[in-house]
């Protein structure tokens, strides 16, 4: 990755708090990760909300399916290595104290969505930065599935889930939702975390 892209991420998080960055993966790199995700489709399970004792399935809030990543899987290594470089850069430039990336592959079958929410669990502040890396080739606006990010001024930004695009935002700052997808929608989604205090 070009150093300017990492600088753009740090500058955006220090300022407006979010960025959508096309080309984090090339189309070929995104296609390879998507193919590997599809090979593991049977291992995906319904996504829940909440953590530990508060975890539950609620199709009225979210209807996607996820597969938590094995960080030793060679097919995922390119994306994970680039994201590790983002983590190191954020620690170096913004002193965020990020110690790990918690992430999963996510698939939204046709008609699926995720209602408006924030990526901080109740009484926990370990998730600091949210990342979403899209894997969808030839995505068109009419396919839906946009990430709607609710901004500080009360407006919102709809982000197209196009292959290779990386979205990064502060986990505790922005409510967001996934609008209903009208075709199958794939991503790698995760959170840079700090240690629990």
UniProtKB/TrEMBL annotation:
Name the UniProt key words of this record, in alphabetical order: Dioxygenase, Iron, Metal-binding, Oxidoreductase, Vitamin C
Any Gene Ontology biological process: cellular response to hypoxia
Q: Name one GO molecular function term.
A: L-ascorbic acid binding
Top-level lineage group: Bacteria
Residue ranges that the Swiss-Prot or TrEMBL entry lists as coiled coil: none
Cofactor requirement? L-ascorbate
Q: Where are the transmembrane segments?
A: none
User: Where in the numbering of this chain does the Fe2OG dioxygenase domain appear?
Assistant: 99-194
Name the Pfam families for this protein. Answer: 2OG-FeII_Oxy_3 (PF13640)
What is the protein's given name? SM-20-related protein
The organism's lineage?
A: Bacteria, Pseudomonadati, Pseudomonadota, Betaproteobacteria, Neisseriales
